[in-house]
Prior knowledge:
Layout: H1 2-20, H2 23-39, H3 43-46, H4 48-54, H5 67-78, H6 81-94, H7 97-122, E1 125-127, E2 130-132, H8 135-143, H9 146-163, H10 165-180, H11 184-199, H12 203-231, H13 236-247, H14 258-273, H15 280-285, H16 292-321, E3 325-328, E4 331-338, H17 351-359, H18 366-397, H19 401-423, H20 427-451, H21 453-468
Antiparallel strand pairs: 1-2, 3-4
Helix pairs in contact: 1-20, 2-7, 2-14, 2-20, 4-16, 5-12, 5-16, 5-18, 6-14, 6-16, 6-17, 7-13, 7-14, 7-16, 7-21, 8-9, 8-20, 9-18, 9-19, 9-20, 10-11, 10-18, 10-19, 10-20, 11-18, 11-19, 12-16, 12-18, 16-17, 17-18, 18-19
Amino acid sequence: MLYNNTMDFFKLIEIISSWVWGWPFIILCLGTGLYFSVRMRFFQIRYFKRMVKLLFLGKASHSGISSFQAFVLALSGRVGTGNIAGVATAIALGGPGAVFWMWVIAFFGAGTAYIEASLGQIYKERIDGVYRGGPAFYILKGTGNKYYAITFAIVTILALGVLMPGVQANAISEAFVTSFAIDKRITAGIVMLLLSLVIFGGVRRIVRVAEIVTPFMAVGYIIIAFVILAINYQHIGSMFVLIVKSAFGLHPALSGVIGAALTMGIKRGLYSNEAGQGTAPHAAAAADVPHPSNQGFVQAFSVYVDTLLICSATAFMILITGMYKVYDSADATNVVISGSGLSESMNEYGPVYTQMAVDAHIPGFGSAFVAFALLFFAFTTIMSNYFQAETNVYFLFRHKKKTNMYAINILRVAMLVITYFTAINKMAFAWNMGDIGFGLMAWCNLIAILMLQGVALKTFNDYETQLKSGIDQPLYDPEKLKIKNTKEWGAPS
């Protein structure tokens, strides 16, 4: 009876996930990114150099972190399991063409990332001496709808504190089982202990850890990918042809999975780069910058780093070494096409694809390297998730200091328990839980930024106007732009 109830629960989670991630949601995500890209005249191309320049301008203050710290804090949330296990899953269920659609969603997602990050900056608040902000703040201050803002805050705490950390924790435990045959319970316990040391240390400890770990692992991971590409340089051209043909159903064996390529590419691309989910504005709001657009550009660039660099690195390693199989989306047991590197008996997918791809050229190193890369990527994502969930607790109880501390400690304990439980469970269950959390947040946030587009676009135009007039470092004056409820910028509240 207990077995049946458990199976029914897992099935229910899967059904809810499919509802949240239906075609209306995919159209909303793609459409929003395309719309904002057009409205800002494809700024992600025109201002690419400026995005890089802004990364290293500005310093941390008593109230806020620097642009680079906000970048790595947001990137630590973006770069996680989705970049390794998510990409492998997208290829397994959508074919190599899924990689192309991940690139598309990243390009247009940069537009969405700019809007949400700049709104996070515009409507930030100083709470307990530290800048805080995010969708709940800009929904309340920008639309005046208190109930909508509270709803988003509750959804975010549920998503980031309960539903999404499991994807990261589960991937870590799966990778360490594959590499070192370590019992999942042991790995889960270690992750829970390390996480407790960080989240009980406060925001600045989270930032310090992310600032060191994220760039180090990202650069190391990309270097390994380039080494494998260099070894297989003669196959690079055919790999790109395979990706493009598969994306449009032109590959004979993959013509039947074009729909799966599109949906899996967008689904896993969005999950990885988080554009529109509403997570990055929390990190963006924490920065001390002279103009909100600074963080808009920086966060748009972080989408590129996440998808065009790190996700692509994973995809290229898997495809160029042939360490993949593509399964029929209607029948998970039916293999549509198999790469040249996997044995017939190999039917697992996820981080193991990436581990085997690196092992193919660096025997005995690849499996362990990917396991530790996943540990760092996924762990920093869980840290980032906690920071964002904590910010929404602050939003709900910002006027009740004692209640706020009780609520934060409850969040910390709950997140540690959930991290352990999901780490020892099944991968499919963890992904479905994470997809539900992501989807619920994104639905709420995308509607909000469309409602507040006038404020964000006015801010963008102000920044661009100042640049064109010869001002290299534009300053923000919301009073001049008639934007209210921005007291941290000196405008009337």
